[in-house]
Here is the input.
Amino acid sequence: MATCFDNIISYKGGCESVSGLLLDNLIPIREAEKYTGEDYASAGELIEDKINFAIENVVSDVTSHFQSSYIPRTILEDKRAGFIAETQTEKAASPYFRGIELRICNQDTFLSMYVSSIDIYLNYTGALNVLVIDTMTGETLDTIAVTSVAGEVVTTYVDKTYNAEKRKRRIAFVYDCTSIPNYLTNLIGEGCITCNKGLYNLSGYVTGRSIKYATGSTPILANIDGHTDTAGLSVNFNIHCDNRTWLCAHRSTIALAVLYRTAELIMEYAYFNSDRFNTKTAIRREELNARMMKYHEDYNTHLNTALKNIKTPMDGMCFICKQKSKSIITLP
Here is the structure.
């Protein structure tokens, strides 16, 4: 899966470095070739593995440093959209994509929506696809393969996360109802939930509505209509703070730390495996150890510099709001 840290650094012959930093300035590709063997088929494979591990190390170190700034809660809300009606009321097939649209109402902090599972309740036995759509762009984000059994509630585990980094998002879960009848499923359960122009406030962060749009049309706001029910579809999700996405905004700041940590890891690997490599070429363990220690010192230096330049938000939801103190002088 692609992440914001992909290609944060690179090497000659690899993908373009988004930071402009190349490992070759510390360890040339021809040197890295000396350290391949049973574990790695090529220098590129060795380097990619160590870059990925270095990224995880740096992210972990930065996260630990700012731990006191995080509000100690991960999941803000755990919700469900789509509730089966108490009476088994069949709804006819129709030539539309139908389902649920969830809107993340956020412009202040770094949130993500994690979808744990979806339920379907259809009068149909067979396979179908539930599409996950970004209804702001019309892009299909995911396709979830589902096997339906007529008259039974079938749960499919999704385990997908959709980011909403300081912006609103509209994400729909729909399927083609052209030849598939379903059983009545309402967006919300019983109780008082505010409705505004077809949008229900499902929580403090998410609104939702039942939707439909014609097959063949682009699933964007202009082509989507609200509907009375969710066509037998339910979505189980939670909203949580996404500190990793926040850190993505600072990836250029930590790039040098990633570079030196990668170099350190390659030297470490070469040092502890030098006996195997000596059958191909002479490698001095003393030199490897000295370079490993030097790159470790450089890593700490650049990491500390990065930490001084990274400022945490103070939104009061995911990050602690640290109020500035002020002195008040009372005159007699």
Summary: The mean pLDDT is 88. The helical segments are 29-33, 43-65, 243-248, 251-272, 274-277, 285-309.
